[in-house]
Specification:
The chain is an alpha+beta fold. The protein is built from 13 helices and 56 strands.
């Protein structure tokens, strides 16, 4: 009889249920099959879902019980050994689907009677979430287990568990919808129907991908746990697809319709329940990893082929167990199998470093130049390339099973993780110790964050993080956060994908219909008006809808289009060379390079870099080259200031940091200069506060204020200024003499102090 449902307990054990009333247990490694239990003759199973493994902090190595829904209106809670622990009358007519939530605290069932019901772990009815006139064929939980997605004819419905919360409903297919799945890692929704199409949606119901019609209705689909792949089943058809919708592979097995698909826990294989009574097993092969001149392919489950395209050399890498995850970057290949981790250097493929894994199933590998991160169900583990465990960062409410490359980022000294409990929060850790960075407080944004990325180069104290929020705005901020709160600055809108360069801090992204490169993102903290001049923009219409940036290595950017094809873009090599010169303080070489290239963008980058590094001579040349004459004049006036502190303060002012400039002057005892800065910025209140507090130059502030009002033909209305101006006669000669005295005093101090003029 036809097989109706399948489900994995471990990576090597599968249970299947069929209309012949049998539950069978399969081991694909040893090819053994055993019968677990024979169900009563009136029970025709329809759906099976194993109870989740990681509950209450205890990680079970395997699932212990499952829920089985059947055509007699009941669901059955059955132990691993086949004992029926409980049968519950649930619906009138068949119970078409049942799903545990991610915590294992609730079960949702749907039936032919059009009802959606929520049950407790022990099988007690908690609530009836929805009722409708048509059967509900499929149901899925939201990643946070706070909403339920179910089918309603041609419509999809997302209903929150809270009463009176807004329900989202949209027409998804032209025929009856048969299957849905909602992934907890990427938050994307799949649907398949009798219109012979499968579609990908985001959690707001926006269509991201719609397939061409198949020959027959699509009867099953399922996400792999890590959210990178999904599988689609139809009549004599099994298809493997990327998360963005395009198809990697199409198989035409002789199976009849595939009614259910289940992925193994490690995501390397899947099983399908077939209409002709067979169970089909499939393994994912031929994944590619590329970096510089190396191309690596998984040719068998335990064998990789390394191809060096420079000299056409080919190496075969053999592994003891099957390969689960791999990553190739920064001169190393890191491979995790079911029990071990292998680290190969690209210089020598013969002697890998091997160490054992604690938890087993690695769900993510991230690499930086000095170390790499392994993520599994138990936590985050940072290893050196010598195989030494460096640290294991932790944060409250940590759920590592839902982390992916968009929500975790690693650099040589910093690790950033986007939290799931509160999507506005980014936790930032020191890589070597695993402790929270700075004062221990996480970075908090005003809206939900979608994607994060740390820059890879430069000093630890200047580490930056770029992130995209829910509105698709791109922000950048500094990571080291001691005392002063660094501003979070917006540098782009409608950004779909981003990547930092591996050798210098250049950021690229696809925003709206343009491919944009921020050659020096730090410009926003130095001279915000200069940022547009430091960008490179190119029309991105050739990438079609929803392109994703794969990598940004050297001066080559790899973009994956929505149809799965790869496009390679080349970015000018000169900004990266300039970054190199500046980090080595070779300013003359930088100027020479800009004169050779004769490019305004490069000059603008040099100007911002020079101001950031307080090199005013270079800044003056660069600003003159891009025609910013007012800034050249201001820089010249800074150079003529008598003391080093004044020059530093005015450079901070130049970068827009008025508060810091004032603090610096006050700490250096230059009270008059701090007052004058506020007068020049028309911060009258603050200027008067300082003058009164330090009992000096009150008349100077009042005189400048009076002159300012006279110039505009206005009368004084501010009470404080009126109070201090009472009985005070403004004598400009006296004030000028006082100012000259202050400047002379500052000159004397500068001459006496050993500080060298910068």
């Amino acid at each position: 009889e036809l097989v109706s449902c399948v489900g994995w307990t471990t990576a090597d054990e599968l249970y299947s249920c069929s209309d012949d009333h049998q539950i069978l247990k399969w081991n694909p490694v040893t090819s053994e099959t055993t019968r677990v239990v024979r169900l009563p003759d009136d029970v025709y199973p329809l759906d099976l879902h194993w109870f989740p493994r990681g509950i209450g902090g205890k990680k079970q190595s395997q699932a212990e019980s499952f829920v089985l829904t059947s055509s007699d209106g009941k669901f059955h809670l059955i132990s691993k050994l086949g004992r029926v622990e409980k049968s519950v009358e649930a619906h009138c007519g068949a119970v078409l689907a049942g799903r545990w939530n991610y915590e294992g605290t609730a079960l949702v069932t749907v039936g032919e009677d059009g009802q959606v019901k929520i049950w407790s772990k022990s099988g007690m009815l908690r609530s009836t979430l929805a009722q409708q006139g048509t059967p509900v064929y499929s149901v899925s939980w939201a990643p946070d287990s706070d909403k339920v997605l179910y089918t309603s004819g041609k419509q999809l419905v997302i209903k929150p568990l809270q009463p009176n919360a807004k329900v989202l409903q949209w027409k998804a297919h032209d025929g009856l919808i048969l299957k849905t799945d909602w992934n907890s890692v990427n938050d994307l929704i799949l649907s398949a129907g009798e219109d012979c199409r499968y579609k990908v949606w985001d959690s707001f119901g926006r269509a991201l991908y719609a397939s061409q019609p198949h020959e027959c209705p699509v009867t099953s689909l399922a996400w792999a746990l890590d959210g990178e792949l999904f599988a689609v089943g139809s009549f004599n058809t099994l298809r493997l697809c990327d998360k963005t919708g395009w198809s990697y592979a199409l198989e035409k097995p002789n199976t009849g319709s595939i009614f259910a698909i289940s992925w193994s826990i490690d995501g390397t294989q899947l099983a399908g329940a077939c209409g002709n009574g067979q169970v089909i097993f499939a393994h994912v092969l031929e994944q590619h990893w590329e970096w510089k001149n190396f191309q690596i392919t998984l040719i068998k489950r335990r064998t990789m082929k390394v191809h060096n395209v420079l000299n056409d050399a080919v190496d075969l890498l053999e592994f003891r167990d099957r390969v689960i995850k791999a990553s190739l970057s920064c001169g190393y290949l890191v491979v995790s199998t079911s029990l071990q981790c292998y680290v190969f250097s690209t210089k020598n493929w013969n002697t890998p470093l091997i160490f054992d894994l604690k938890e087993g199933t690695v769900s993510l590998i991230l690499q930086a130049e000095r170390h790499f991160l392994l993520v599994d169900g138990g936590g985050l583990y940072l290893y050196s390339y010598e195989g030494r465990l460096i640290s294991s960062p932790k944060y409250p409410g940590m759920r590592t099973d839902i982390l992916n490359a968009q929500t975790v980022s690693l650099s040589n000294d910093t690790l950033a993780v986007k939290d799931k409990a509160d999507e506005k929060v980014i936790y930032i850790f020191e890589a070597l110790s695993g402790k929270p960075l700075g004062d221990g407080k996480p970075l908090t944004h005003k809206t939900e964050v979608v994607e994060i990325a740390l820059d890879q180069k430069g000093l630890t104290s200047e580490r930056k993080i770029a992130f995209i929020d829910k509105n698709r705005d791109l922000f950048i901020t500094s990571v080291k956060r001691f005392g002063k709160e660094q501003k979070i600055v917006k540098i782009g809108t409608m950004v779909q994908s981003l990547a930092w360069n591996d050798t210098s801090n250049i950021l690229c992204g696809i925003q709206d219909s343009r491919f944009t490169v921020w050659y020096y993102p730090n410009t926003v903290y130095v001279d915000k008006d200069l940022l547009p001049k430091t960008l490179y923009e190119k029309d991105a219409s050739e990438f079609s809808k929803n392109p994703q940036i794969g990598s940004f290595v050297g001066n080559q950017v790899t973009v994956r289009r929505a149809d799965g094809s790869l496009v390679h873009l080349h970015v000018s090599p000169y900004p990266a060379i300039l970054h190199g010169y500046v980090s080595a303080s070779r300013w003359e070489d930088g100027v020479r390079l800009c004169r050779f290239v004769k490019d305004q963008t490069l000059w603008a980058c040099l100007a911002a870099m020079a101001v950031a590094n307080k090199d005013m001579t270079t800044a003056e040349i660069a600003y003159a080259a891009i025609g910013e004459i007012d800034k050249v004049q201001y820089i010249n006036s800074i150079k003529d200031l008598p003391s080093r502190e004044s020059r530093m303060a005015h450079m901070l002012l130049f970068s827009g940091s008025a508060q810091e400039a004032e603090t610096l002057l006050l700490q250096s005892g230059l009270v008059y200069q701090a007052i004058q800065v506020n007068i020049n910025l028309y911060n009258w209140e603050r200027a008067l506060d300082l003058a009164v507090k330090h009992r000096t130059h009150v008349d100077t502030v009042l005189a400048y204020r009076q002159k300012f009002l006279e110039d505009f033909g206005k009368k004084e209305t501010n009470q404080r200024f009126l109070q201090y101006a009472e009985g005070l006669e403004v004598d400009w000669n006296k004030i000028k003499a006082k100012i000259e005295m202050e400047i002379a005093k500052e000159r004397e101090r500068a001459a006496a102090s050993p500080a060298v003029r910068s």
